[in-house]
Structure prediction request, 254 residues.
Amino acid sequence: MELTTLNTISYIWLALAIIVHVTMFYVTAPFGRHTSDKWGISINNKLGWVIMEFPSLAIMIYFLFTGTHSFHSYVWILFSLWIIHYLNRTFIYPVRIRATPKKMPLFIVLNAIIFNVINAGLNGYYLGEFASEEDYNLEWLTSKTFIFGIFLFAIGMWINLKSDSILIHLRKPGESGYKIPKGFLFEYVSSPNLFGEIIQWSGFAVMAWNLPALTFMVWTFANLVPRAKNHHDWYKKNFTDYPKERKVVFPFIY
Ligand SMILES: NC(=O)c1ccc[n+]([C@@H]2O[C@H](COP(=O)([O-])OP(=O)(O)OC[C@H]3O[C@@H](n4cnc5c(N)ncnc54)[C@H](OP(=O)(O)O)[C@@H]3O)[C@@H](O)[C@H]2O)c1
Prediction:
């Protein structure tokens, strides 16, 4: 594939993110607390997470080992950060979440597979075939862009992991209900885990400084801001004592 083709696909994919972003404020993605049997066949929730996240992990590993440029520059660092995140999301996160009778519609799994194949495909292909020593060399590794980007990535990942852990531990083994989360960034927003993930992939885009990484940052924002709003509205509807000062996803802002 030529770089111009990859760029064209990225621009079309970016435009689609904006449409999906607006739509998701009106149509709640039916998984987790918002799951519903109106969306057809459903599968085990934990299995759903493994199946839908695995393509992103597999595609990046494939391009890391087959890409022309993967080991001729420091681009392997970007591959590794992506792979570490998706190792957790594919295999560790589903094991850690509490087993509940909740199921995940196959519709969500299929949509997420498309999302992951395109995002990992664009990023993996670009990093493996178009990122050269001129882009990701020692100078890049000591640049302000790289240092700021990796700092954002690490902070975002830490916020995401810590918030997910707090949520997972709200339930004792065998419980399946919901409680108001307290402490850490939950004092400021309803979904610090989603806030952390947005910061994390923004950091990745700053570090990588290429179109596919920007596209993935925009998609993460497009998906997670409406999901956080859906969570926030759900809390307010289901808990009369839900803290009024708590924002949706960005502390003090929204
Ligand atoms: N990159 C992307 O576009 C993308 C898209 C979606 C998700 N993600 C990531 O995937 C992870 C999960 O996302 P999510 O929206 O499904 O998270 P979530 O709704 O906050 O749920 C996280 C886990 O905690 C449980 N939980 C949440 N709130 C709870 C409460 N108040 N009381 C008791 N248990 C509670 C959930 O159980 P239930 O499942 O039973 O509700 C689930 O097991 C996050 O880290 C997110 O960043 C990324």
